[in-house]
Structures are given as structure tokens and as C-alpha cells.
Design a protein that fits this description.
heterodimer, A: alpha+beta, eight-stranded antiparallel beta barrel, two-stranded antiparallel sheet, 13 strands, about 25% helix, globular, B: three-stranded antiparallel β-sheet
């Protein structure tokens, strides 16, 4: 018994020490009531089973090479105009006419998907999350769930988007939480999105870790600065919805997404933030970005036919109706991981004219 | 930005007397500065012409630019020529080669009955009987036994796209390593730049930019005097003088000065040159944003059409028309063995129409309107020209055609805006088309791209 009491008191002491240590560390990292995080991994949230038979019982969709062969069999006389350019015209000027598709588009079966309840409702087309949350809005899963390139762990789109985002100092997405008193519970914080311009901080093993620094791109990245209110509950940051222009990670094309009712739901620690990002993506911007970032050749890797995707995007779009009532945005979710980072707010440095060294200008020099 | 504006308004150039004025000292003297090159022995009938963007290039006796076609690896094989082995022949190809993924070979080419042979688009520069090699100029044999001039081993051609001396429409010195995306293009043959080995020149849309041999931009300062550096103390925290060897003699535009720190420093056109310690991109234009500091161009491009101006975008600066709309160029090489261009008005328009208007010229004009030229508009350079087009086909208008439209053209190709752009600053149609807009598609007219290589 005495031993048990001793064990208890030792455990209590250890726990108290851990709590005190945690509080001290938290005090330290939040000394200015702010903490920054930089994105180190992003992938569209795709629910999948080991053999894919549950969600894609009919297999995966055809890509450009497979569709080309079905459309234009080798037995026919083939011209560039009637084959290649016909395909490219569907790619770059798509329609919602499904008669063009050589076979029925394969959408995921079942009602399970990863994501967020964006509208606060439980609708007939909504999903249930793998852990049982109802009302999940992630209609884009119906478009990409059975396309090889979008599936984990190494679908081509998934792989390269993440790889580009990690390798290139371009379109670095980051956010800063300000007016924060605790990473465990704080009912009122401000979250500001920025575009960063520096490499990610990694350890010798290549793992992204906290403690790096990032400069804000004030010169070209003003359109990516957005502030939104949020709260932290039991260590989970949740932001209020806001329309944002978000940097997209691939380094070509028009590298941004237009997202309606964008938000974060992230488990916070002092060194990382991990969870989901959600919102309604503008269909046209999303579709064009796919082709502009990667054309027919690259999408062939992942058996991804953009003309087929375009039709599926509009079939499943669930927000932002236009004047005719057609929805122009589609709900989506991303698995995201961030590392803690020190965000440098200094605007661009400008050399002084009196040669006393660099001085800071409030307005970036042009 | 300041630099871009300056070259946009300052230079009224004519072919072969290029003003590459970059240096404040040179400009202050009011004399146009021509890009220097290493003089070398030339065969009879071959000369050097200094073009108004590309700088010095070799030309034939009539002034037509000479080109080579170096072998280039494509997605499914190589295209181009190896040294000493000209293959650009007299027989037109009928089908594509399938070199550019994902499409197979064996597809009949557009307008196949009138498709020119490679040698019609790229007339070989024939050498007379008994011609002997001169320096790096050698004589190679064509398959029909005729002799052809070659430079550095590569057979030389002129281009059917060039209309006048100084035109360089058949190729560019800009980045030519996009073979896997763009196809195997031709390159202007050019004499060696007259720079010390520590330096090289990058051809960007904003001009021919001087860098170190490891691609770091070099800069000059307004605070310096001719051949005298005033960058000392704290200035050196941000800028590093480009050190010259202890023993070196003057070379062309280059001199050596004694920096106060006790080192030898290079000067270009008498301006001491530096690298910027904070540059992360190679090459970079960021240092030119700093007050009193400038990138160094050995040649700057000619003025763009009146009313055109620059616009800031999400990663740099593009050219816009008089209403602020982003300007786009169209690029195309076909996929035959001879890799003929398909981005000029006489070429089959089917490629362009496929990506811009579902094969329809009217839809294409709606989606990607031509940039119309004002009545009587003229250009001071061959780089920008007013072109008369048939609006129903997109091809060159016939003489006197009643419904012809006058449009602005760059390097002999029309330029466009995009209706998806709703206002100034929009750039929705950049990289619109295959392989990021390089193989069959549109690219914004980037003058600066701090994150990518769109301006290269």
C-alpha cells in the first residue's frame, strides 16, 4: 500500500512536472500571443479501402490513353485533326455533354467520406465520416474517388502536388494565429493566411519540423493574405468560413484556387498542426488549374481524363448557384499538415541611399 | 520595374544597330551600346548581324539569320540533328512521329497536301564547291551530296519565317531546354559573347541579362563612379563585388578596378558589378527593386507598341494592352520528325483552334481576341509589327481583302488577350494548352517571374 501511494505520488509529481513543463513551453512559444504554421503536406481527402473494392466496385476510370484508343481505334484512318486535336478541344473547351464519354464515369459507391460538415446540415447527398460524423460535405470525392491519380499513397496528382509544394519555395501556404492565449482552449483567436517564400525546415532524416522561419511575400502575394476569426477547443483550431484565394502548390499555370467558405479544423501542438481544410471550390478555376498545371501527357500517368472530370464536377457541384440555378462550386476537403514556423513580418528591405546599411521600408520598393 | 519602364519607352531601334543601353554611364553619354561579341574568321557570304532582341547572330549575305537544329530529347525519342549530320530534307512528312506523349505516331498531319518540306521551311546554307572550313565553320554533306555550311558541327539553315535582315523569328536564344515540353526547336547561330569566363548572358523576355557563370544576377549601383566602387562598410553586407583575377587584361566592355577593400573588381561598361547576397533565385531581378541598384542587361528589347504597359501579377510582371488586359502569345510545334512550327499565320490553324475554340475560328476569336492595332499604328522595331489577318480563318489576309483586320504581332505571330480575364491584373489563361502552353497553347507575356521561369 505504501508502495502504491508512493507510486501514485511519483506519478502525480511527474504529471505535474509535465503539465508545468508544457505550460512553460506554451508560455514560451506564445510569448507574443501568436504562433505561425507552414504547410508541409496537402492532399485531397480521399476515403479508400485496401483493395478499393468497397468504394470503387467497378474499378477505376479511364485516362487519356485508354479513352484515345476507344475513341479512335487503330483500325480506322487517323488524322491529327480528327483524333489528337479533337481530344485536345474537349480538354480545353469542355462541355457537360456526356454523350462524348466513351464509357460511364465511375463514381465511388457507399456513403463514407472524409471531410467537414460545411453547411451545418445533414442532407441526403452528404457523407458520413469514417468515425461516424454525419453531414460531411465532400462532393468532389464523387469526382476523384475512383481516379488513380488522386488516390493514396502515391497517386500521381497526389504525389506531385505534395512533392512540388515541399520542394519549391513557391506558393508556400502559412497561417498565423494571433491574440492566442492557449493552444488548448481559447474562444477567440485571429487566423491570418499568408504566402511564404522560404524553404521548409527539415531534420537530417528529411522530416519537416518546427522552428523554421518564413518571410511573407508582400511583393506579389497580397491577394493571398486573408484574416479570419477562430477558436481553439480541446486543442483543435476551428476557423469561421471565409472566401479566400488560396495558393495552389504546383509551380505552373495559374497557381491559385478560389474557395468559398474556406475553413480549417486542425489539432494543434507547439510544433505542428494537422487535420482538415475544407470549403467549396470554384469549378471553373479548379478545372482550368488542373489542365494548366498539367496537360494531357501528365494526366495520363494517373488515368485522369479532364473532360470526364469536368462533367462530373458539374454533376456533383453543390454550392454557389449562378443565375440559371446551376451550382458553380463543389464541396471539398484536404488532409493537411503544418509545421510550426516563425513568420517574419518585415516588409522588403531596401538599401539606403546614405550607405548606412539596409533600412526597412513600409512599402516594398518597386 | 523601373528598368522595364525605361526600356519600354527609351529605345527606338533599328535592325543591326541595336541600342542595348543598360548602363547609366552609357546612357548618359547618349550613345547606343551594341552588345559585344568575339570576332572570328567568317566564310565568304556569312556575316554577323546584331538583332534588336537576340543580339549578335550569324547571317547570310542577304542578312538572313542562320539557325541550327541541335538534337533534343523528347518524350518518346529524339528530334533534331547531330553534329555533322544534316537531316532536314526535301521530302514533306505526311504523318506525325509520336514523339510527344500521349499521342501515337502515324496520324496524318493537318493540311498534308500543302505541308512544306523541312528544307522549304529551313533552307540549307549551301557551301560552294571546294569550300574550306574557316575557324568553327565547317562543311558537311547533305544526303543529296550537296555541301552545307555548319557551325560548331551543326548544319546551318535560314528560316522561311524571316522576312528581312535582322528578323529572328525562326528561333530564339531564350531557354532552349524545354524540348520535352516544347518540341525540338531551332536556335539562332551566334558568335561567342565577349565576356570573361566568370560571366554569361541569360536571354529573358526583359532582355539579355548579365549573370555570373553560375547564373547569379549581377548588379550596378548609382552611387558608383566610372571604374570606382563606393560600396563599402555596411553596403558590403548586402552586396558582394564580383572579384576579378589578380592578373587580367581589359576585355571588350570589361575593365578591372581596385575596390577599397583591397581586391580587384570587375566593371562592365565602366560600372563596378556586384552580386546580391540575398538573392535566392538564379537569375534574379529582385536586386533591381532596391533603391539605386540595377540589373545589368547587355541588350534590351525594343519598345513595345504604344499604349502597352506592364502589370503586376501573382509572381511577377506581365505585358498588358492599352486597356490593361494581359497579353498572351501562342506557341506550337507539330509532332512530325522535322518539328515544323505551327504558330504563325501561314501554318495550319487547326492546332490553335482546338485549344482556343473547339476547332472554330469564331469561338476562338471570342475566347482569345486578337489585339487590334489602331489605324496607322506603326512599330519602331521588327520585333513588333502590325499584321493583316483574315478574321474567318486566322491566316494572313490577301492583299486588298475587304474584311481584313489589323492586329499586333510579336516575332511574326499575332498576340491575344483572353476573355476569361475580367479586368486588369487577371491572368486566367496563362499556360493554356498542352505542356503548360509550350507545345500547343498560350502563355502570358511574362517580363518577370520571381518564382518560376516563365520569363525565360
Amino acid at each position: 500500500m505504501r508502495g502504491f501511494k508512493m507510486l501514485l505520488s511519483t506519478t502525480a509529481l511527474a504529471a505535474a512536472t509535465m503539465i508545468a513543463g508544457s505550460a512553460a513551453a506554451e508560455d514560451s512559444i506564445l510569448k507574443d500571443r501568436k504562433i505561425g504554421f507552414v504547410l508541409n503536406s496537402k492532399a485531397m481527402a480521399v476515403y479508400q479501402t485496401a483493395d478499393a473494392k468497397a468504394e470503387c466496385p467497378n474499378g477505376f476510370n479511364d485516362g487519356p490513353r485508354e479513352q484515345f484508343v476507344k475513341f479512335f481505334p487503330e483500325s480506322q484512318k487517323r488524322t491529327v485533326v480528327d483524333t489528337q486535336l479533337k481530344y485536345e478541344q474537349e480538354w480545353w473547351n469542355p462541355t457537360t455533354d456526356t454523350s462524348w464519354e466513351p464509357q460511364q464515369f465511375k463514381q465511388p459507391a457507399g456513403n463514407i467520406a472524409i471531410g467537414l460538415n460545411l453547411d451545418g446540415k445533414v442532407g441526403p447527398n452528404d457523407f458520413t465520416s469514417p468515425d461516424g460524423e454525419t453531414g460531411i460535405d465532400n462532393q468532389i470525392y464523387r469526382v476523384i474517388g475512383c481516379i488513380v491519380g488522386w488516390r493514396g499513397p502515391e497517386g500521381q496528382s497526389r504525389h506531385f502536388v505534395r512533392s512540388y509544394q515541399q520542394r519549391f519555395d513557391y506558393n508556400r501556404t502559412m497561417f498565423e494565429i494571433t491574440e492566442v492565449d492557449s493552444l488548448t482552449n481559447d474562444p477567440d483567436v485571429t487566423v491570418t493566411l499568408y504566402r511564404g517564400r522560404d524553404p521548409l525546415f527539415a531534420n537530417a532524416g528529411g522530416d519537416f519540423i518546427g522552428g523554421g522561419s518564413q518571410r511573407i511575400d508582400y511583393r506579389w502575394g497580397k491577394q493571398f493574405i486573408h484574416a479570419v476569426k477562430g477558436k481553439i477547443v480541446d486543442g483543435v483550431l476551428m476557423t469561421e468560413p471565409k472566401r479566400v484565394t488560396m495558393p495552389e502548390s504546383t509551380a505552373r499555370g495559374v497557381p491559385k484556387m478560389d474557395i468559398h467558405e474556406w475553413r480549417l479544423k486542425l489539432k494543434l501542438t507547439e510544433t505542428s498542426a494537422e487535420g482538415l481544410m475544407g470549403g467549396y471550390i470554384d469549378v471553373e478555376r479548379f478545372y482550368n488549374a488542373l489542365g494548366q498545371n498539367w496537360g494531357t501527357h501528365h494526366r495520363s500517368y494517373g488515368q485522369e481524363s479532364l473532360p470526364s472530370e469536368y462533367k462530373a464536377l458539374y454533376r456533383n457541384a453543390d454550392a454557389v448557384p449562378d443565375a440559371s440555378g446551376r451550382n458553380t462550386a463543389i464541396s471539398a476537403a484536404w488532409d493537411v499538415k503544418f509545421s510550426q514556423v516563425y513568420i517574419i513580418h518585415s516588409p522588403q528591405q531596401v538599401a539606403s541611399k546614405d550607405d548606412k546599411g539596409p533600412v526597412t521600408s513600409a512599402v516594398p520598393s518597386r | 520595374m523601373k528598368d522595364l519602364r525605361r526600356f519600354g519607352v527609351a529605345l527606338a531601334v533599328t535592325v543591326a544597330v541595336v541600342a542595348g543601353a543598360t548602363s547609366a554611364f552609357a546612357q548618359s553619354r547618349g550613345k547606343p551600346v551594341m552588345e559585344d561579341y568575339v570576332r572570328e574568321p567568317l566564310p565568304p557570304g556569312i556575316q554577323v548581324v546584331v538583332a534588336d532582341f537576340e543580339g549578335p547572330v550569324f547571317a547570310d549575305a542577304s542578312g538572313k539569320t542562320l539557325y541550327t537544329w541541335p538534337v533534343t530529347p523528347l518524350r518518346n525519342g529524339d528530334a533534331g540533328e547531330q553534329k555533322g549530320k544534316p537531316t532536314c530534307g526535301e521530302v514533306p512528312y505526311k504523318v506525325n512521329a509520336g514523339l510527344m506523349s500521349p499521342y501515337p505516331g502515324g496520324l496524318e498531319l493537318p493540311e498534308v497536301d500543302t505541308r512544306p518540306a523541312c528544307a522549304q521551311m529551313w533552307p540549307p546554307v549551301l557551301a560552294p564547291e571546294g569550300a574550306k572550313e574557316v575557324g568553327k565553320f565547317t562543311v558537311v554533306s547533305r544526303s543529296d551530296g550537296k555541301k552545307q555550311w555548319a557551325y560548331d558541327g551543326y548544319a546551318l539553315y535560314t528560316s522561311a519565317l524571316d522576312e528581312m535582315p535582322g528578323d529572328v523569328r525562326g528561333g530564339t536564344k531564350k531557354k532552349t531546354t524545354r524540348g520535352d515540353s516544347q518540341g525540338a526547336g531551332r536556335e539562332p547561330a551566334a558568335p561567342t559573347e565577349n565576356n570573361p569566363p566568370q560571366f554569361k548572358v541569360y536571354t529573358l523576355q526583359s532582355g539579355r541579362l548579365l549573370t555570373t557563370s553560375d547564373s547569379r544576377s549581377v548588379y550596378v549601383s548609382d552611387r558608383d563612379a566610372p571604374n570606382k566602387s563606393n560600396c563599402t562598410a555596411a553596403c558590403l553586407n548586402e552586396w558582394t563585388p564580383v572579384q576579378a583575377p589578380a592578373h587580367v587584361s581589359q576585355q571588350g566592355d570589361w575593365t578591372v578596378l581596385d575596390h577599397p577593400a583591397g581586391i580587384k573588381q570587375w566593371a562592365f561598361r565602366r560600372q563596378p558589378v556586384y552580386t546580391r547576397n540575398g538573392d535566392t533565385k538564379r537569375p534574379s531581378l529582385e536586386g533591381g527593386d532596391m533603391a539605386g541598384w540595377h540589373n545589368v542587361y547587355v541588350t534590351k528589347p525594343p519598345a513595345w507598341p504604344q499604349g502597352f504597359a506592364t502589370r503586376d501579377m501573382q509572381s511577377g510582371i506581365v505585358l498588358a494592352d492599352s486597356q490593361g488586359r494581359t497579353i498572351y502569345t501562342y506557341q506550337c510545334l507539330d509532332d512530325a520528325v522535322d518539328q515544323l512550327p505551327c504558330d504563325y499565320p501561314e501554318a495550319p490553324q487547326a492546332y490553335r483552334l482546338a485549344v482556343s475554340g473547339r476547332g472554330d475560328q469564331a469561338m476562338s476569336m471570342k475566347n482569345f481576341p486578337y489585339v487590334l492595332a489602331d489605324k496607322g499604328a506603326t512599330s519602331s522595331s521588327r520585333r513588333w509589327q502590325v499584321m493583316s489577318l483574315d478574321p474567318t480563318t486566322g491566316k494572313r489576309a490577301t492583299v486588298g481583302q475587304a474584311d481584313a483586320i489589323s492586329v499586333w504581332a510579336y516575332r511574326g505571330r499575332p498576340v491575344y488577350t483572353c476573355t476569361r480575364d475580367k479586368g486588369p491584373g487577371d491572368i486566367e489563361c496563362d499556360t493554356w494548352g498542352e505542356f503548360y502552353g509550350w507545345r500547343n497553347g498560350y502563355k502570358a507575356f511574362w517580363l518577370r517571374d520571381d518564382y518560376g521561369d516563365n520569363d525565360e
